[in-house]
Amino acid sequence: MNSRAETTDDDLLIRIAGGDREAFALLFAKFAPKVKSYLLRLGAPGAVAEDLAQDAMVSLWRRAASFDPKKAKASTWVYVIARNAWIDRLRREKVQLAYRDLTDMSEASGEEAPDAAVAREQEETRIAAALENLPDEQRQVVRLAFFEDRPHSEIAERLSLPLGTVKSRMRLALAKLKVQWEQYR
Amino acid sequence: MTLCHHPADEVLVSYAVGALESGFGLVVGAHVGACTQCRVKVGALEEVSGGSLSDLPDASLGAGALQRTMARLGRVPAPAAIDRRPLLERLPLRPRRWVAPGVWVAAVDTPHSRDNRVYVLSAKPGMSTARHRHSGAEFCTVLKGAYRDEVGLFRAGDFAAAEHDLEHLPVVLPGEECVCLFATEGRLKPRGLMGRIAFALADV
Ligand SMILES: [Zn+2]
Predict the structure, then answer these.
(1) A49 with B16: CB under 8 angstroms?
(2) List of long-range contacts for B100-105, beta carbons under 8 Å, 24+ apart
(3) To the nearest whole percent, how much of chain B has pLDDT over 90?
(4) How many domains are contained in chain A?
(5) What phi-psi label fits residue A147: left (phi over 0), alpha (psi between -120 and 50 degrees) or beta?
(6) Which residues are bridge partners to B161 per DSSP?
(7) End of a domain among A97, A117, A133?
(8) B106 pLDDT more than 70
(9) pLDDT tens digit string along B164-184?
(10) Hey, which of A145, A154, B61, B106 has its CA 20 to 30 A from A2?
(11) Domain limits at B98?
(12) Are the Cβ atoms of A167 and B47 closer than 8 angstroms?
């Protein structure tokens, strides 16, 4: 893009910041088809790319007042708004979360000291004992999750239980384990 | 403060073009927000991308696209307010889940692929998290506090990417709890009973 075109885009953006709808229409004609093209390349389906290109242009209108030609080129600025429209759209779509996570509690050192290893083993023995004290139906759910690393949805399927039941059994088991666990602290 | 651990350049490129998987992009963004050096790089990449935008072929817009868009414009554009609170306060977190004494996790309420997990983990000073192996990539940005592992010292803002089959034992430094934002791909493979229990409990 040559510098004259850049100047024109800058001017348009500055006019848009002042509420000039004609300037907006000109910038729309230039950038909206490019933005849609970019969104299609990111993998957005056609209808989504169309919606998002329009969303991005609305954002551009709203944010024009914060455009500063000394800080960014107009094309960079439009690009960032388009990219963020895509990311924002993804954020708005709720996707079911499935996550799990770590932790253990050995001593604070890079390498595990021998006595820390012993302490950890003792802790594990206590936990195993705590597990044994759980009611059968909770232990069954918990074992599949703990020892076979199965997601809750799969446990539900395996035991022919509703997912909600698996989760509530896990919660009950967790509450009991937590009490027993913290008795040892 | 100058940060020591940054994403690889190819990660920054993917981030700048919006091609990182959601969740992973969030973790990189947490670092970029805290790191002047990476912000400069990302800014340069965005400038290149902006130039490329003009080189793309025009996609045809639906009939009346301009009219529909114009109809949505407010009368006078107002600059959007910027939320300047620390990222940890801005992240939409699901309820905290107890994992072990002094440790909690909370899923970040953000969409991501079914096989990935995006969450915040907090561990108290001196705590070591479970020794674990990775079955896939893991991105992490420290939001608060500091931890040390085989690679080095990671302070608030530092970024860590773990690869497949790295055996990993992070330890939180004394003084302050350590809060990290994670995106992980696939399931972690914890070693030891404690680790397995912690993992299983967090899957709710
Ligand atoms: Zn950096």
Answers:
(1) no
(2) B100/A103, B100/A104, B100/A105, B100/A181, B100/B194, B100/B198, B101/A105, B101/A181, B101/A182, B101/A185, B102/A105, B102/B127, B102/B177, B103/A103, B103/A105, B103/B127, B103/B129, B103/B198, B105/A99, B105/A101, B105/B202
(3) 20
(4) 2
(5) alpha
(6) B139
(7) A133
(8) yes
(9) 555 667 788 888 999 999 888
(10) B61
(11) 1-204
(12) no
Ligand 1 geometric centre to CA of A61 (Å) = 31
- Output the domain CATH number for residue B161: 2.60.120.10
Residue A3 lies in a domain: no
Which residues, including other chains, have CB under 8 Å from residue B165's CB and lie 6 or more apart? B133, B134
- Span from the CA of B110 to the centroid of ligand 1 (angstroms): 23
Residues A91, B62: C-beta atoms closer than 8 Å: no
What pLDDT does B113 receive? 66
Judged against a pLDDT cut of 90, whether residue B102 lies above it is answered with: no
CATH for A105: 1.10.1740.10
CA distances A99 to A124, A129, B105, B121, Å, are 23, 26, 10, 12
**A43 and A97 both lie in a single domain:** yes
pLDDT in the model for residue A5: 47
Across chain B, what does the average pLDDT equal? 79
Distance (Å, whole) CA A174 – CA A182: 12
Verify that A26 and A110 share a domain, yes or no. Answer: yes
- Phi and psi torsions of B146, nearest 5°: -155, 155
- Model pLDDT, residue A20: 92
A36 to chain B, closest Cα gap in Å: 6
Asked whether the predicted pLDDT for residue A102 surpasses 50, the reply is no
Residue B28 contacts by C-beta under 8 Å, 6 or more apart in sequence?
B7, B11, B12, B15, B20, B139, B141, B159
Contact A108 B127 (CB under 8 A): yes
Q: Is residue A139 part of a domain?
A: yes
Q: For chain B, what is the domain count?
A: 1
Stretch A149-178: mean pLDDT, rounded?
Answer: 73
Q: Which token pair is A88?
A: 């924002």
How does pLDDT run across A25-84, given as a tens digit for each residue? 999 999 999 999 988 887 788 898 999 999 999 989 988 888 888 878 888 889 888 888
Range of the domain at A173: 135-185
Structural contact between residues A50 and B61, judged by C-beta atoms closer than 8 angstroms: yes
